[in-house]
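Listing S7. Sequence submitted for prediction.
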Amino acid sequence: MKRSQSFSQIKALNNQVKFEDFIHQSPQQIENQIKQQQFNFQQSFAIQTLICQTPLEKFINYSLGNTIIKQGFIAVKINNGSFKKSNIQLTREKLVILEDQIWNLIFNLKYLGYNLIQCNKNSLQLIKLDFFQIGKVIFLKFNDEIQGKLWYQCLRMIEEKFRNQYRKIIIKDIYFGTDFVTENEFLDWAETGDILLFQTDNYLAKLQRAITSSQFDHVGLIIRKKEHNEIMVVDVKNNIGVDFEFWKFFLKLNTQYKKINYRKLLNVDREFINSKIQEFIEKVYGQEFQLNIMKLLQQQSNGLINKGYFCSELIAKAYKYCSLLPQQKASSQYWPVTFSKQLKLLNQAELSHSMTILLDLDIKNQL
């Protein structure tokens, strides 16, 4: 990220009180001056380091919110459930419950309105986060008063940090406990080659998810059109084949998706990816939807360009075209579930963790 001043130059603003000021000013005036200069330093440093010019810079800046500030094993109860000893992480923006060292439930304290409540006036061994606008609560029970006090102070710090910085939102139940990002954040970060995962609301899609043990049954690819600064979604539709639509029209025309998740492609040459993806889409645009038993049994690749595709096969082909996946394995062996899990890419590229996009139309209200 670019700064107009170096860190040392900014730091020089901090605690600079001239000697003559000590002679002519009262102790209170000096203290106020120091506080003002400390404030100037903090503001200058914050402004200069948060100037994000590219989608990747914006994404990286957001990812700093996942920095862990507190962690431990705590008894947790959600809503009317029972207490369960859990591994808990508190980041700068989220309360996270882990399962087998993997983020399982994520509560976004940056955007969700809640009250932090001390359940016993004489003790901090039991505290409650009351998400009052959506009727959800989380209880945290600690081993002793000291542990409870430390966690309470950290949670209070986060509560104060975001109290007036962001408008709190009222969300649908499907977003509670998920690592969601707002639609505007997604549109700021999205770049050519990033992945979208879809959960479709129909019987066949549910059956597919059950068979593959996945949350998702469909996958798409993102293209950012620089000339319009617009996001386009490339996917394969049963009745159309390989198609692409601008994001805003995609949402209007495809209302069957219950949940949409986003994964960012990282550590790649963006100019190369932009060129290769667009070149590939030009070659395959309009190709029909095709899924049959022969494809599913195929183990070895039959080349980069086919006469027909299903959704995840198309994404695998596109990634192969960009030298991000091995050429030998058949693209038909890649399913939506493949792109939702940890996927080893070539040339040090990787996909970010999966984040649910909180669509504007699913925000019930803002506080």
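Caption to Listing S7: primary sequence and predicted structure tokens for the chain studied. Residues 1-23 have pLDDT under 50 and may be disordered. DSSP finds twelve helices and 20 strands in the chain.
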